[in-house]
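Example (one chain per record):
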Amino acid sequence: MTEQPIAELRELAVKIATSYTQANPVSVETLSAVIQSAYRGLLACTRPPGPAAVEKTPRGRSTGAGRRRRTA
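Predicted structure:
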């Protein structure tokens, strides 16, 4: 993904915040937080993804998946 200039991200964040405030009641005090949240979200989308997390289980222990309960 190509990096977008910061000015373009700010412009997109303002557009997102404007659309959000038109559909949802937002006080003037929280408007800057809405814009910042949109900007941080867009900025996160421009960064390369981190390594995938792999969940490891200790050897010999089961997670219980696939087990059936015995019925009497």
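Caption: Residues 28-46 form the longest helix (19 residues).
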